[in-house]
Amino acid sequence: MLTMTAKVDGRVVRGDQTRRAILERAAAIASVEGLDGLSIGRLASALDSSKSGVFAHFGSKEELQLATVRWAREVFVAEVITPALRAPAGLRRLWRLCEAWLDYASRPVFPGGCFFASVAVEFDARPGRVRDAIAEAHRDWQRYLEEAVARARELGELTADADPRQLAFELDAFTRATQDALLFEERSVYTRARRAMLHRLRALATDPSVLPKSPR
Amino acid sequence: MLTMTAKVDGRVVRGDQTRRAILERAAAIASVEGLDGLSIGRLASALDSSKSGVFAHFGSKEELQLATVRWAREVFVAEVITPALRAPAGLRRLWRLCEAWLDYASRPVFPGGCFFASVAVEFDARPGRVRDAIAEAHRDWQRYLEEAVARARELGELTADADPRQLAFELDAFTRATQDALLFEERSVYTRARRAMLHRLRALATDPSVLPKSPR
DNA sequence: AAACTTTACGAACGATCGTACTATTAGTTT
DNA sequence: AAACTAATAGTACGATCGTTCGTAAAGTTT
After folding, report:
1. Between the CA of B41 and the C1' of D10, what is the distance in angstroms?
2. What is the DSSP secondary structure assignment for residue A10, as one 8-state letter?
3. Per-residue pLDDT tens for A99-135?
4. Do the Cβ atoms of A145 and A168 come closer than 8 Å?
């Protein structure tokens, strides 16, 4: 029994656990202070461990930033993409995707709002590997949204004149604008975003009854 | 003549000039590196002057940040609000406002995109005077946009069911999403935002011929 | 049980941060 | 012309930054 515990809490496993604990904190802090504002010393003291101990796990600050982006991406998938997969493909899933996003941002999973909304603006004008990683994650999300729109159209649940790229852009824009909820400390922004999304989708839906009633 | 030059280039005037030069650089750098990422030493070397010289003009970093926000606000008014005033009140002015914003963001006036879009996300989760100043400026813009919508409705150029607050939110959301143009280095985002704005306004306009044709 | 590897820590590095103090220069006021 | 004041530079401070190095403890392999 003791041996088993030792095995489970062994070297490699324990390393992975603390690694995960570090990244969880790092993502939380970065959503508030930014990925660059996040310092290793600050992160270490938040975890009650040593600066060099945290540092050793990543080898450089850039690697820490890249690992944090990868971690946040996994969180995003688990919180937004996966839940929406429970709805049937098409307009229903597209709408679930929107709702899951609003839920994810407002809960909040990250204290500084959507991790990617924060760091994308931070890095959009400074080249480097971190920016590239953020851009790729962001692009993937937009493409996924676009594909969800395209699928709904293929299934005949959206009218033919619904341009997937354009509609995905607009839905994504509404998610971004919810960042104001933090700046103004006013949660009504979420319902406004929801209303905007719903209005846009109802106008393009062949059967609007699939969607919830307009005002919430 | 020499006396005149001396008078014009005197102590107070010269102080104001360098102050302006500092703020111009500060706003430019902050739009890229963030208002917190902006350091006084970095700013001084960009201006080929001494750190203490720059510092003396403001007394603290926070005051420099606040002055930079005020400066950026003036730039924004000059670049977006004022040009739109040339159009007659109502739907025409509202549309000019949207176009002026797109022009301002894409030119670009600030190298890191819209100054406020950058710093609003940076400060939205950390309380303080700087955040309050940013929030106020941002709120003022949204209110101005909202009033422009309301005015167009009063003039009968938008249908009665156009909710000013909601429509202003949606138009603002499209401006925010243009930040992707920097992240992806893809200017097509501006035309997508333009199309989204135009589509939304045309649907609510009593006389759509006031607006330009749909696709650009 | 011995040899090896990984985790985590503490101390120290050079650089840079915001800020404080002093000095010099150059307009301004009297 | 003398007294005064604002602009700018220089230097130095304590703190913190990312990073390096050496080391003790713990887990793994042989």
Report:
1. 14
2. S
3. 999 999 999 999 999 999 999 999 999 999 999 999 9
4. yes
